[in-house]
Design brief:
Blueprint: H1 4-20, H2 24-45, H3 50-71, H4 79-101, H5 108-126, H6 134-160, H7 164-188, H8 194-214
Length: 221
């Protein structure tokens, strides 16, 4: 179990190195291997049951989306389509995460409404920082909305039912959200920066690893 965590981060570092050298095929391979690590970790940690199964499915979709996002650098003629499909797969993963943890929430309407309000505020801010085509904006609003609502629900779970699982999952989901914000700024902002890409990938993989590890803490929740 503990071998998979540093192994995932090593593969992530190789992704960054390969991207910097513009070796996009190895980068996609290393991305897949890094993501495979958190999927395997999830299977090792899972206690079984509906909540765990949905979290595992979310991890698998995240791994698929990871590779798709990097394939846009290889399939340049279809880069836009591949990117949008990757975002769609990530969105489905977030929805699975949400359906896994929402049943644990006592105040479901309040948690979801809080997420919707925060999404509206975030979208208003982020559109002052980035420029993108309408199709990307439409996908982005739905995608960002899903992960912010997920974080809102996770926060409500943490407040209502403080446990090792809710703490671990909340941190993982929050790091995932921050990594996505950085990805948006780095992809659609005025200037792409390597250091933002480093922070983006680092937070993303730590977040997914924590979500995978949280499966081992589900017992008794």
């Amino acid at each position: 179990m503990f071998i998979l965590i540093p192994l995932c981060l090593v593969f992530a570092a190789l992704v960054l190195f390969s991207e910097e050298k513009k070796h996009y095929v190895p980068a996609a391979v290393f991305k897949g291997l890094a993501s495979l690590c958190f999927v395997i970790l999830g299977f090792i940690c899972t206690p079984g049951g509906r909540t765990a199964d949905r979290l595992i499915a979310g991890l698998i979709l995240g791994a698929i989306a990871d590779v798709l996002l990097n394939l846009r650098n290889i399939l340049k003629e279809k880069a836009k389509l591949v990117f949008l499909v990757g975002i769609l797969v990530f969105l489905l993963g977030h929805i699975l995460y949400l359906t896994a943890v929402l049943p644990l929430t006592d105040h479901k309407p309040a948690a979801v409404l809080t997420g919707v309000v925060l999404t509206a505020l975030f979208i208003r801010w982020i559109f002052t920082k980035v420029t993108a085509e309408k199709v990307f904006k439409a996908f982005g609003i739905v995608y960002v909305g899903a992960i912010i609502v997920l974080n809102s629900v996770a926060l409500f779970n943490l407040i209502e039912h403080r446990s090792p699982f809710t703490v671990c999952f909340m941190i993982g989901a929050l790091l995932f959200l921050v990594s996505d914000i950085i990805l948006i700024l780095n992809t659609f902002g005025s200037e792409s920066r390597l250091r933002l890409r480093v922070v983006n990938l680092t937070l993303y993989y730590i977040g997914q690893l924590l979500i995978a590890i949280s499966l081992s803490l589900l017992a008794g929740v």
